[in-house]
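Readers of this paper often ask what the protein records in our data store actually look like. Below, we set out a record of this kind in full and without editing:
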Amino acid sequence: MTPTPKTKTKISPSRIPITLLIPLVILAILYSFFQPWANARFGLKLPSIVQILSSDKKPQAPASGPDAPHADPKLQSAESNAGEISPYEILRKTAAEVYVSAEGLRYTRGSEEGHRIKHLARHLEDMPDRSGNHGVFEGGWQIALNRIDDAYRRSKQSDSKTKVRKEEDRLIIETEFDEVIGYIGGKEGARKGNPTTRRLRLVTEGDRFITAFPY
C-alpha cells in the first residue's frame, strides 16, 4: 500500500504568540518616543511608526473638503506627506487663510508661494539645484513649528543665545539651540557635504511670520 502523505498544518502569519506580541508592542511604544527625539537631537531621518506601517501602501492624497481639519483648498500643496502631521492640525485657524501658533505667531498670505505656510514648506526639504545655501529643518512640521515658536519666544526675553536686530519694519531673530535642528542644502550646502546646524534665523513683521530656516 502506498502510505498516505501527512497533511502539513499551515500556521497563519497573523496568529502571533502573545509572548512575542507583548515585547513588540513595548518596542513600538519606546520607538515612538525615541524617533522624534533622535531626529531633532542628531539630525536623523528615522521614519515614524505610522510611516513604517504604511510603507507598503500607496500614499494617499491629503484630505480635502469640509471635513478636512483646517484644510484650506488654496493651501493643500503645503500639506505633509502621508503619515506626517499637517501644519493645519498644529496651528489654530482664526480667519480666512490666517493660522496662529501657540506663541501667537501669525501665518498669513504673502511670499511668492502665495502663503507663508507654503513658503515654510520649502524649508522642510532640500532644493539641491538652488544656488547658494538652503536651510532645511529636520523632524517634520511639528518640530519645525516648535523651533520657530521657541525662537519667537526667546526674542521677547533676555536670552544669551538669541540676537535680535531691526531692518525697517522687520525683526531678524537669530538663535542657537543645544541640539541639531537641520542642515544646509542647496548647491553650496552639497559642496560642503550638507553640514548640520544648530542655528535658526526667523524674520517677522510684528507678530506676522515672514520666513524661518536653519543657517
Notes: The CA atoms of residues 2 and 8 lie 18 Å apart. The radius of gyration is 23 Å. The longest strand covers residues 170-176. Confidence is low (pLDDT under 50) at residues 54-79.
